[in-house]
Design brief:
The complex is a heterodimer of chains A (405) and B (279).
Chain A: E1 18-19, E2 22-26, H1 32-46, H2 49-63, E3 69-71, H3 73-79, E4 83-87, H4 98-111, E5 116-121, H5 125-137, E6 140-146, H6 147-152, H7 154-162, E7 166-170, H8 177-190, E8 195-197, H9 208-216, H10 218-231, E9 237-242, H11 246-252, E10 262-270, H12 282-285, E11 287-291, E12 293-298, H13 323-331, E13 335-340, H14 341-355, H15 361-373, E14 382-386, H16 395-401
Parallel strand pairs in A: 4-14, 5-6, 5-8, 6-7, 9-10, 9-14, 10-13
Antiparallel strand pairs in A: 1-2, 2-12, 3-4, 11-12
Chain B: H1 5-14, E1 19-25, H2 31-44, E2 48-52, H3 63-74, H4 79-90, E3 98-102, H5 104-110, H6 112-122, E4 126-129, H7 141-146, E5 150-151, E6 154-155, H8 164-169, E7 175-178, H9 191-202, E8 209-212, H10 218-225, E9 230-233, H11 235-243, H12 255-272
Parallel strand pairs in B: 1-2, 1-9, 2-3, 3-4, 4-5, 6-7, 7-8, 8-9
Classes of the chains: A alpha/beta (405), B alpha/beta (279).
């Protein structure tokens, strides 16, 4: 296949929402006018300094940004190679990077006069962030969550309820994140007039992948000046975990054109990539297809039926991935790796032991690759890993796997 | 381009009535019962048959059609077997138009050019692919038209006057007006609005306009048939099918009559709403 390598990796998507062959707007006609309206509203907001001022003010005073860029001294010593920095997005209000995107979308919803917010959630972090900002702005909040996830992420379910959100356990299909997204889309098709769909990752129909990326790019922008401040230069490598891929694209995007910066995305290999239904690595084990409004790499069978991914992390077991990642993989700008459940658990424990930080199971996948890559790099190699969520929500899952501790 | 759709809508129009368009999920609840049902539909009064291509993630469908797709997949149905089913149907019936309805991914994965050739050869007349709006016409719509297959587009209450021409441009066979904002099997539409919408669409196209969503029985079918060139019924048939299954979800002796009796009833409703033929 002949792939065009662009002069800049940061100009996408095109006006039809395509990143190379990926992305697009594969939605039912009922939603098309809404998506076009959203695209227009976002373009206007993006060009309005008042929108950016409001976003920056709340990011600072409500979310707690900038999140620190922290030198992980003991992990660096232990691994004996690259100098490891943590981008501490787990310190954000609500405990993950998800709120960066939700803040942007909720401010946009307010501009559009939408009073009813719907969201899908897997692990519950996006749901909690959405419930939080809906409470902050007095908006109605309905969160769709697979019935299986409602069971395994109870602490987040309680949090959302306390924040006033209505949780709808989704009983259709496999009853996990992809079905929650289907159900949210069904809600949107039904309640077109007053409803804003706040998608949690850099996927879905155009303009969502680009819009979510823009809101998450605060992570990479901060990392740039923070590393400049700490070391006087750019980092040498960036590492982030990938489910849908919003924290990774947020970290990577401001660095895409800095050729010296190596970029690593880490997918969830679950029980191992050799088990077709035992992992959630859509790039490593999937192929291009169309789901949830975009063309991207998907886990599916030969008939095009979607396969339910598996990961110990409820935030990574989505059978797709954002379309920009699909494109970045095909053109080779980002290297995509994976980590198994066990590797993630080991890395999580290492992080607790060495740094006194309990990361979520999602960034534990990125840390698992740090443990492999850092020793292969020289001591002056600057490596940044996005610790995109804190591990409180996962303590019961982890305890179960580690034998009750 | 002509398929079996044009003569069929013309025939219904000449009889001064709307066409009855029935939807069933291919392979629901099992391949043999599904084929027997397809074969029985025309005799029961169906003028056009929509054959659902099962998909794991039907984002525009309500619980009934979702469950039907999962039953079909559990019974081993696939895109290739769906085309086999059409081929088997065509051995006995070469006149009733068949329209495939579903989502793009199975077709995309199969390969668009191969799918179009196989579908045409199997005796398919057209397709409705829910997640392909006009913005993505290059994907399947234009190649389908080139391959001699109709591409039937959905128009919805959110399709405003400005957008309607774009939606109609590459539509052929008929226009499927979705009478409510929502998923299949949802609420009953406001019939006066339906009439308005059909008039609005007809101002932009000569194609027949079929109306679906919310048709449950002879009465609701008649109410829509009075205003439209076609009436689409799906969820009600699938509910009847599902209610005839045994505890394990298998077909019973009641399954085929449960569906065909309802089709016959709805067909009577459609015919009772006889419109004055344009004379």
């Amino acid at each position: 296949m002949n792939i065009d390598i662009p002069n800049s990796y940061r100009t996408g998507p095109d006006e039809r929402g395509h990143f190379g062959n990926f992305g697009g707007r594969f939605v039912a006609e009922t939603l098309m006018p809404l998506i076009l309206q959203l695209e227009k509203a976002y373009e206007v907001a993006k060009a309005d300094p008042a929108f950016h001022e409001e976003l920056a003010f709340l990011a600072k005073h409500y979310v707690g940004r900038p999140s620190p860029l922290y030198f992980a001294e003991r992990m660096t010593e232990e691994l004996g190679g690259a100098k490891i920095y943590f981008k501490r997005d787990e310190l954000n209000h609500t405990g993950a990077h998800k709120i960066n995107n939700v803040l942007g979308q909720i401010l946009l919803a307010r501009r559009m006069g939408k009073k009813r917010i719907i969201a899908e959630t897997g692990a519950g972090q996006h749901g909690v962030a959405t419930a939080t900002l809906c409470a902050r702005f007095g908006l109605e909040c309905i969160v769709y969550m697979g019935a299986v996830d409602v069971e395994r992420q109870k602490p987040n379910v309680f949090r959302m309820k306390m924040l006033g959100a209505t949780i709808v356990p989704v009983q259709s299909g496999a009853r996990t994140l992809k079905d929650a997204m289907n159900e949210a889309l069904r809600d949107w098709v039904t309640n077109v007039a007053d409803t804003f769909y706040c998608i949690g990752t850099a996927a879905g129909p155009h303009p969502y992948p680009a819009m979510v990326r823009d809101f998450q790019s605060i992570i990479g922008k901060e990392t740039r000046w923070q590393m400049e401040e700490a070391e006087g230069r750019l980092p040498d490598s960036l590492i982030a975990c990938i489910g849908g891929g919003s924290n990774a694209i947020g970290l990577f995007h401001p660095f895409l054109d800095d050729k010296s910066v190596e970029l690593y995305g880490v997918e969830a290999a679950g029980h191992g990539l050799e088990f077709p239904e035992g992992h959630a690595a859509s790039l490593a084990g999937g192929r291009p297809g169309v789901l949830h409004g975009n063309r991207t790499y998907l886990l599916m069978d030969d008939d095009g039926q979607i396969i339910e991914g598996h990961s110990i992390s409820a935030g990574l077991d989505y059978p797709g991935i954002g379309p920009e990642h699909a494109w970045l993989r095909d053109i080779g700008r980002v290297k995509y790796l994976s980590a198994t459940d066990k590797e993630a658990l080991d890395a999580l424990q290492m992080c607790c032991r060495l740094e006194g930080i309990i990361p979520a199971l999602e960034p534990a996948h990125a840390l698992a690759q740090v443990a492999k890559l850092a020793p292969t790099k020289p001591k002056d190699h600057l490596m940044v890993v996005n610790v995109c969520g804190r591990g409180d929500k996962d303590i019961f899952t982890v305890a179960e796997h580690l034998g009750g501790m | 381009m002509t398929t079996r759709l044009e003569p069929r809508f013309a025939k219904c129009a000449s009889e001064g009535r709307a066409a009855l368009v029935t939807f069933l999920m291919c392979g629901d609840p099992d391949p043999a019962t599904s084929l027997a049902l397809l074969k029985a539909l025309p005799k029961a009064g169906a003028d056009v048959i929509e054959v659902g291509m099962p998909f794991t993630d039907p984002m525009a469908d309500g619980p009934s059609i979702q469950a039907a797709g999962l039953r079909a997949l559990a019974g081993g149905m696939s895109l290739i077997k769906t085309l086999d089913m059409v081929r088997a149907f065509r051995l006995e019936d070469n006149e009733t138009p068949i329209v495939l309805m579903g989502y793009f991914n199975p077709i995309y994965v199969h390969g668009v050019p191969a799918f179009l050739i196989e579908a045409k050869a199997a005796g398919v007349d057209g397709m409705i692919v829910v997640d392909l709006p006009p913005e993505e016409d290059d994907e399947l719509c234009l190649p389908a038209l080139e391959a001699g297959l109709s591409f039937i587009r959905l128009a919805t209450p959110t399709t405003d006057a400005q957008r309607l021409p774009k939606v109609l441009t590459n539509t052929s066979g008929f226009v499927y007006y979705v009478s409510i904002n929502g998923i299949t099997g949802a609420a009953t539409p406001d019939y006066s609005r339906v009439s308005e919408a059909v008039t609005r669409i007809k101002a932009h196209t000569d194609l027949p306009v079929a109306v679906g969503f919310g048709v449950k029985n002879a009465e609701s079918a008649a109410a829509i048939a009075a205003h439209a060139d076609g009436v689409v019924v799906g969820t009600a048939l699938i509910d009847a099918l599902k209610n005839s299954l045994d505890g394990a979800g298998a077909a019973t002796a009641q399954t085929i009559p449960a569906v065909t009796n309802l089709v016959a009833d709805i067909a009577n409703g459609v015919r009772s709403a006889r419109k004055l033929a344009a004379e």
